[in-house]
Amino acid sequence: MIRSELITKIAEENPHLYQRDVEKIVNTIFDEITEALASGDRVELRGFGAFSVKKRDARTGRNPRTGEAVEVEEKHVPFFKTGKLLRDRLNGKEE
Q: Is Chloroplast included in the keywords of this UniProt record (predicted)?
């Protein structure tokens, strides 16, 4: 599902809300999650999962095309860990 599909589905399930308002709500949620991760915070959505940032150390990698050694800089990457309710639902263990 992409962002526009999410907005459309929420708008359909909540006919009392205008689609433009749903779009603002969804964009605000994503922006807040992005800002929190950018500042190094962890974002937890109970029953869904937790977003965090993991640090990857600098290393020597390989160019897959030439096999030549390449220095890869240290970087920070987003990480998502599923919550128990989501994991159970995906594995068919719904309550």
A: no
